Amino acid sequence: KAGVTQTPRYLIKTRGQQVTLSCSPISGHRSVSWYQQTPGQGLQFLFEYFSETQRNKGNFPGRFSGRQFSNSRSEMNVSTLELGDSALYLCASSKQGAVGEKLFFGSGTQLSVL
Amino acid sequence: GQNIDQPTEMTATEGAIVQINCTYQTSGFNGLFWYQQHAGEAPTFLSYNVLDGLEEKGRFSSFLSRSKGYSYLLLKELQMKDSASYLCAVTPRGGSYIPTFGRGTSLIVHP
Questions:
Q1: Which of B37, B97, B105 should we substitute to test contact with A (largest number of A Cβ atoms within 10 Å)?
Q2: B-chain residues within 8 Å CB-CB of A106?
Q3: Rounded distance, CA A20 to CA B96, Å?
Q4: Residues forming beta bridges with residue B74, ordered by sequence position
Q5: Pick from A44, A56, A108: which is nearest to B42 by CB?
Q6: Is the Cβ–Cβ distance between B28 and B44 less than 8 Å?
Q7: Is the separation of the CB atoms in A1 and A103 below 8 Å?
Q8: Alpha-carbon distance B91 to B33, whole Å?
Q9: Which among B40, B48, B104 has the least Cβ separation from residue A102?
Q10: Chain B touched by A62 (CB under 8 Å)
């Protein structure tokens, strides 16, 4: 069974640009969450999608957005990039997104903003 | 809200035992996860504790005290491959199931 796949693995952008990251969850998993990971802040929750609907949202500005397709694949978009957006962006999937369900993470997209 | 605290870094010797602590303060608590993350890799699930007590899985054990807001991950017979970051995450009771992660503990195992 294939794991969670994130593309691209590395990305370099400049301030003001926008970026789109992609995540393919494990087959049969309907919940997809996105996290931002930085050395100083650890993993911070961005948003969660379930059946193409955003079900939960973290405390990030509106520049961060996402969506989920009917096959459960998800994308997140960051517009007007800032230097502080440099981070590892992790996607995680689970079957139903229920309490206590373990998350399966992808290897992440390392975004560098210059 | 939730506040989770774990040590930033720990070092230990191959073959030894190490205990990584995690304390939390939360308005509502359901359970606590431990994940392992090797450098440059995805976090992987280690354990999920809901009830008080110790749960053992091979060389790894996880303990929870709900009344004290305290958990620890115990690693026995340390191996070099155990060098990784260990993430503690708390899940709330009711409503959103989204776990809140601590900043992680970087464990360095040396020969």
A1: B97
A2: 42
A3: 26
A4: B19, B61
A5: A108
A6: no
A7: no
A8: 8
A9: B48
A10: no
The pLDDT tens digits for B18-38 are 999 999 998 788 899 999 999
| Residues sharing a CB contact under 8 Å with residue A89, sequence separation 6 or more, in sequence order | A6, A21, A34, A35, A36, A37, A46, A76, A108, A109, A111
- Residues of chain B with pLDDT below 50 are none
Closest partner residue to B45 (CB to CB) among A48, A99, A102 is: A102
Q: Tally the C-alpha atoms within 13 A of residue B25's C-alpha that lie toward its C-beta.
A: 3
Q: Is B21 part of the contact surface with chain A (CB cutoff 8 Å)?
A: no
A90 touches chain B (CB under 8 A): yes
Average of per-residue pLDDT values in chain A: 95
Exposed, middle or buried: residue B29 (CB in 10 Å: 0-12, 13-18, 19+)?
middle
Do B31 and B50 touch, CB atoms closer than 8 A?
A: yes
Structure tokens at A106: 């992808």
DSSP state for residue A99 in the 8-state scheme: T
Q: How far is CA B9 from the centre of its chain?
A: 13
Token pair for B7: 């040590």
